[in-house]
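Note to self: keep these together.
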Amino acid sequence: MAEPAPPIYVQASRFVLDVANGRHALSKAIPPVLLALDAVLCGLIIWKIPYTEIDWVAYMEQVSQYVSGERDYTKIKGGTGPLVYPAAHVYTYTGLYYLTDEGKDIFLAQQLFAILYLATLAAVMACYWQAKLTILSRHQVPPYIFPLLILSKRLHSVFVLRCFNDCFATLFLWLAIFFFQKRLWTPGAILYSWGLGIKMSLLLVLPAVGIVLFLGRGFGGSLRAAWLMAQVQIVIGIPFVSNNAKGYLGRAFELSRQFFFKWTVNWRFVGEETFLSKPFSIALLGLHATALLVFALTRWLTPTQRPLSSLLPAMLRGKSPFSALEEAQVASRVTPRYILTTILSANVMGLLFARSLHYQFYAYLAWSTPYLLWRSGLPFYVVYILWAAQEWAWNVYPSTDLSSEVVVGVMAVTVAATWLGTADEGAPAEKPESKKR
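Structure:
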């Protein structure tokens, strides 16, 4: 006698779980459906919530001076101060300057940033979806993680209510990751360099990008990619460097900028005196360097299956440390999942030890956390709790001691959990045992 069918609620719960965990044909529909819903949400936000002016007018004032012929970076200023971003920022906002009637059509600007947001979200989802061990692998980011990509209040605010340049830098970071995952190294390198030319925040992932290119493209190929990225920066800076090289480099890539305590989101709980002190700055730099070294030695170089000490001698002589066969084997271990894990872990690590984070920096963090928390192997409810805590903290304005502690705490947990949960990332795939006869 056939067993009776389970109750409807049991069938329904199984169906939901199968879809949420990627075990159903409809699982593939989750990302596009969420993207469509978010498009509607962006429209509602623009319609219902007033635009908040922070930097847009200053961007347009600076661009107007560039359009008028000014090429000395030290003389280009706006309402919020001097121009402190690289040349790609100027070119990007020059396009917006013309599209929005010299920056006067804010409503159109918001619509353009909504499109930018959705394009970035689509790139993020694509990177998540293909982050698996091999092309044929079924082990990938489950659909239940994807709703976290569209639920951030702060992220929508950064894009469609503030129009920050971080939005463009974020887009090019994710496009670069996508192309790297597709093993299109040259376009990926160009996209990354252009994003870096918009805002130097992308320097945080440069160590990881360098390692990914070195392992995936080979020693010679990675050097060519590095030179290509440098060429992009040289070319976009020519109009300004030829006029005042020191002024351009000093403003566009200023690393000694003094930060205001009142705007910090992350280190408010240490107090203003500590925040502004040089020892605190040096300590953060030292911790960042140490964390990078630990990840590089114990995680990011795993595909080589060799210690760094055995790689350096040949590299210092300008030669590849691998034979042709070894280089191919190492490159085969640079999977889409390895690439995403490596670059995003460097990103969150850099943000964790940053001297000061402002609210717009959430553009770099918000879409990194869900993946890394999942990749670390944490239970789904812990992932959601940590995401919710992070989202709450970044929406507290102005920041408080508690909110800043949560901001730093969640990033610290994310970095630690990622290190603990990715010991096998990039390791050679285990061969299936031969069947016993």
